[in-house]
Amino acid sequence: MAIVETRVLSKVYGSGDVTVAALRGLTLAVEPGAFVAVMGPSGCGKSTLLQLLGGLDRPSSGDVLIEGRALAGLSDDELTALRRRRIGFVFQTYNLIPVLSAVENVALPLALDGVRPAEAQARAATWLERVGLGDRLEHRPSQLSGGQQQRVAVARALVADPALVLADEPTGNLDSRSADAIAQLLRQVADSWGRSVLMVTHDPRIAAYADRIIFLKDGTIVDETRLAAAPQAVLAADASLMEAR
Question: What is the DSSP string of 153-216?
């Protein structure tokens, strides 16, 4: 069963003579443990697709299914619970809370879901160690580099053990070295930790870390590439990149 699936998904903004079709009958499926990149020009529907997949907006027609569960029939409260427990989000701008430490930022989704503070902090610390920040638990965002902040964001996305991670231009604010480190980390999220990852990116080099690249134009899928074997530079476990700060 696909982790996330869309069925003839369409989204239209505006009404009457002033309408914009952001998505036009888009159908796709992402399997368990897959790493999928979505590319396309500005205005092609990439951001709209992420919003619909994450339950942040509702389609004009068609449907989104998460683990076989149709989002159309869910109430706002049910959607909120599903986002919190089954979907992790990684944004270009990190979206960390400045006054909280790294471990507090990562623990926040669990705290909001009613997990006991001690357990939430322990699980957050475990994920920060997994992403290479075990020595930065008490650092606030201002004390971390951009690459480190994005690692915190990845740990936060994973702390509730979601089935799906949605990443919106996760390397857009990073230098090339840190961008490669984050792309390798997302590759590990799929390969080692078994989560499905769907990433929007404008960078073909970063997209090459994925198993599959989907190309959007004018709200539809116009091409798709499956990467049977990623470039050697992508596959290499370059320790210096993973240690990038």
Answer: HHHHHHTT--SEEEEESTTTTS-HHHHHHHHHHHHHHHHTT--EEEEE-S-HHHHTTSSEEEEE
